[in-house]
Amino acid sequence: MDEYIVNIGMTANKCNVSKDSNYKHKKFKSGSYVNTIKGVILHPFLNIPAYVFVEDDSYVECRRCKII
Question: pTM above 0.70?
Fold first, then answer.
């Protein structure tokens, strides 16, 4: 989880989890394509690291986010 904590304060895009190099960006709950990372938690259902965002207090698993 330490490798994700260093990304706090950075911005990220939400995208599909795949090996395909063509990322399709998705909107966050706020309706924006870019959100600012506020913190890192354990995803309540998947038990893997997830980012929490400033703009809408939503959470998305870390591997679905691409730091920009």
Answer: yes
